[in-house]
Each structure stands twice: as structure tokens, then as C-alpha cells.
Amino acid sequence: MHKNIQEILLSEEQIRNRIRELGVELLRDYGDKNPVFICILKGAVVFYADMIRAFDAHCEMEFMQISSYQGTQSTGSVMILQDVKQDLAGRHVVILEDILDTGRSLQAVCKYLEAKGVASLKICAFLDKPEGRAPGITLEADYVGFPIPNAFVVGYGLDYDEAYRNLPYLGILKPEAYAK
Ligand code: XMP
Ligand code: MG
Asked: Is the beta carbon of 128 within 6 A of some atom in ligand 1?
């Protein structure tokens, strides 16, 4: 275990097993739809790579990167730093995200993608922090890997200041690891 990790919340094996189950769920719902799976960079990249390989049917890949506007967080504004490359009109789209917390960023992304005329839009989140939802946000994920308590987590794509994304498990940092 990494020296800065206090506790492993989800082991590699727990994650692997749940991904397999989610792959079956997505196959049941999208197996004949040639869905477009959108990876929200950077946090979802590890989850995404595992999920698409757990989906045993035709699908297409797209990538988006977004960033929250500093200072106007309450408005839920997000900047699109990288957009999808193909026309999504009439397509069945599934957003793959690392974690649903306040829900602000995904709410903005959904609004943005719906305006492109998609046939359907669903959210598959590796993690869900139900207690983190901002007031007034009713958005929920359609597929959730794991609900987790309101703690800051790293690993399996998630970072603290860009570090720890490559840990193969999900962990909680030691308090002293935040002091820089
Ligand atoms: P919302 O808009 O739902 O945004 O608040 C979710 C985004 O916030 C980041 N986030 C975290 N990143 N550990 C992280 O490494 C966490 O515990 C955590 N909680 C939220 C993440 O970028 C996610 O996409
Ligand atoms: Mg981050």
C-alpha cells in the first residue's frame, strides 16, 4: 500500500467484480444500440478503460474534458476544455464519470449534450457521494459502481493535485499527505 494512504476503501478485486456486473447491465441495456461512451477526462480514464472492455458489443469512444469555473461554482458553470469529435445527433450516449459529488459538473454536461440532439443520455458513475449533492440538484446516476461516504478519495483515476491517479485501488489519504 502507498505510504500516504490511510485506508483502502475499495480493493482491486472489489472494483474488478463490480465492473464485470456493470458491463452486464450495460450490455443488457445497450447491446444492440451501438452506444457512444463518453469518458470525462481525466478522472474517469481508468474506470473507462475497464468498463469498455467489460462491454461485449459494438460501441464507440469519445472524450470530453471539463473544468469548473473558479468563483462561480454556485452557478454550476463549467468550461468545455475538450469536446466530442463526432456528431451525436440520434445517438445513444452514456457518460462515464469518476464520481458524482455535488452534481454540478454532470448537470452542466448533460444539458450541453442534450442540446446536441442525442437519442438518449445516461450517466454511469464509478462512485457516488449521495451526501455531497448541492442544493437544488436533482441529478442522479443511472448506473453506479459504488456509493461512498463523504470523504476525499484518491486512486483508480482520482487525484489529489494530480497525484495518485495510478493507484490500482481506491483509498483515503492520510491527513498529513494534504500538507504541502
Ligand atoms: P461535482 O460537480 O459532482 O464534481 O461536484 C465531481 C468532480 O469533483 C471531483 N471530486 C473528487 N475528486 N476525490 C477526487 O479525486 C474525491 O473524493 C472527489 N470528489 C469530487 C472529481 O473531479 C469529479 O469529477
Ligand atoms: Mg480531480
From this structure: no
